[in-house]
Specification:
Largest sheet: 8 strands, mixed
Strand content: 25-35%
Radius of gyration: 31 Å
Shape: elongated
Oligomer: single chain
Order of helices and strands: HHEEEEEEEEEEEEEEEEEHEEEEH
Distance between the termini: 115 Å
Helix content: 10-25%
C-alpha cells in the first residue's frame, strides 16, 4: 500500500512534460499561423481597397477632363494651327490648338495627356472688322460680348497655319475695341485681315497629366500670363497611364461618327496624304486610357504578380488584349495591381459645327 502511494506522489514524469510541451507548441503554431494568415488577408484587403479608391478617383478625374477637352475651341477649321503666345525661344511659346494630345512614354513607360479648352463659357467667336498687325495695341471687333481683362483671345485666319494668343489688358466700352498685351517678336509683322476669327478662350484651361517618380498621378496647370506650370498631385499609388486616340477613318462625310481606328499616335484619318492636319484632328472622336494602381503593401510571401493587361488598338486599329509594361518599377512583381480602363467620347468634337 505504501509503495502505491509513493508512486502516485512522484508527480509528472519527463514523458508527460514532453507531451505537454509538444501539445503547447502545436497549439502555438496553429495560433501563429492563423494570426499570420489573418494579417496577410487584412493587409491584402486594405491594399486592394486603397488601390481601388485611388483608381476610382483618378479615372473619374481624367474622364471629366476629357469631357471638357475642346470646349470653346472654334471654329473646327482652326484645329491643328500652331498657336503662339510669346516670342520664339520663350518656354512654352507655342502649342498646337488641339483638344487632346498624347505623348507616348518610351518602351511602355507611362504616357502623358495634355488637355486644352476654354476656361469660361463658350460664346460665338467675334470677327475683326479692321486689319490687325501683330504688335499693335488695338483689336477692332464686331462684338466684345463676354471679353474681360485677363482673358485670352485666339486670332485665327482661314488658310493660315499660325494662330496668335493675346491677353486682354482692357476693353473699350461701346467702341468694340480691345487692347491686347503686345509681345515683341511674336509673329512680327503678321497681318490678320478683316473677318479673321477672334475666339475668347477666357482663363485658358491648359493641363497636363502624367505619372511622377513617386507613383502619383500629377496635374500640371499652365498659367499663360506667367508662362509657368503649376504642379499638384491628384492620386497616390498610380504606377502607369496608357493612352490611345480614337479616329473615324471611314472615307467621306459621315452622318453618324464612330471610332474605327485606335492608335498610340496620330494617323492620316482623312487619307489626304498629310499626317496631323486639320482633317485628321476633326476626325478625333475619343480617347481610350488605362490606369494601373499599386497596392500599398508589398507582397512578402511571393513575387509572382502577373502582367496587367488592357484592351488597346493594334497595328490594324482593332482592340486586342495588350500587356501593360511595369518594368520601370523596381521588383514590380512583388506588388499587387488593379487596372481601370475606359474610353471617353470627346463630346465637344462631336458637337462642333
Amino acid at each position: 500500500m505504501a509503495t502505491s502511494l509513493q508512486r502516485h506522489s512522484q508527480g509528472l514524469s519527463l514523458i508527460d512534460l514532453l507531451v505537454g510541451l509538444a501539445v503547447g507548441m502545436v497549439a502555438t503554431l496553429v495560433i501563429l499561423s492563423t494570426m499570420i494568415m489573418f494579417d496577410a488577408r487584412r493587409r491584402s484587403t486594405i491594399g486592394h481597397s486603397d488601390a481601388q479608391i485611388n483608381l476610382g478617383f483618378a479615372g473619374g478625374w481624367l474622364a471629366k477632363e476629357l469631357r471638357i477637352a475642346g470646349h470653346g475651341l472654334s471654329p473646327s477649321s482652326a484645329l491643328g494651327c500652331m498657336t503662339h503666345r510669346a516670342a520664339v525661344g520663350t518656354p512654352d511659346a507655342s502649342f498646337l490648338l488641339v483638344p487632346v494630345s498624347i505623348t507616348q512614354g518610351p518602351s511602355g513607360a507611362p504616357d502623358t495627356l495634355t488637355v486644352l479648352a476654354a476656361g469660361d463659357q463658350a460664346l460665338p467667336p467675334a470677327r475683326l472688322i479692321a486689319p490687325y498687325t501683330m504688335g499693335g495695341n488695338q483689336l477692332t471687333l464686331d462684338s466684345t460680348l463676354g471679353i474681360a481683362n485677363g482673358h485670352q483671345l485666339l486670332l485665327y485666319a482661314a488658310g493660315q497655319a499660325d494662330c496668335a494668343l493675346l491677353a486682354v489688358t482692357s476693353v473699350s466700352i461701346g467702341a468694340f475695341s480691345v487692347q491686347p498685351n503686345t509681345v515683341a517678336n511674336m509673329l512680327s509683322g503678321r497681318i490678320f485681315v478683316p473677318d479673321s476669327t477672334v475666339v475668347n478662350l477666357g482663363r485658358l484651361r491648359y493641363r497636363r497629366y502624367a505619372v511622377d517618380t513617386q507613383y502619383r498621378l500629377q496635374m500640371d496647370s499652365f498659367d499663360p500670363a506667367l508662362g509657368t506650370w503649376v504642379t499638384s498631385p491628384q492620386a497616390d499609388g498610380i504606377v502607369n497611364l496608357q493612352l490611345q486616340y480614337g479616329f473615324d477613318t471611314r472615307a467621306g462625310t459621315q452622318v453618324s461618327p464612330q471610332v474605327t481606328f485606335w492608335s498610340d499616335a496620330l494617323v492620316d484619318a482623312d487619307a489626304d496624304g498629310q499626317l496631323g492636319d486639320n482633317g485628321d484632328w476633326q476626325r478625333l472622336l475619343a480617347i481610350r486610357f488605362a490606369l494601373v494602381a499599386r497596392s500599398v503593401q508589398r507582397r512578402e510571401e511571393s513575387c509572382d504578380a502577373p502582367t496587367p493587361t488592357w484592351l488597346a488598338g493594334d497595328t490594324t486599329g482593332a482592340l486586342v488584349v495588350t500587356d501593360i509594361v511595369l518594368t520601370h518599377i523596381p521588383d514590380w512583381r512583388c506588388w499587387r495591381y488593379r487596372v481601370f480602363q475606359t474610353e471617353v467620347l470627346l463630346r465637344n468634337q462631336l458637337w462642333a459645327e
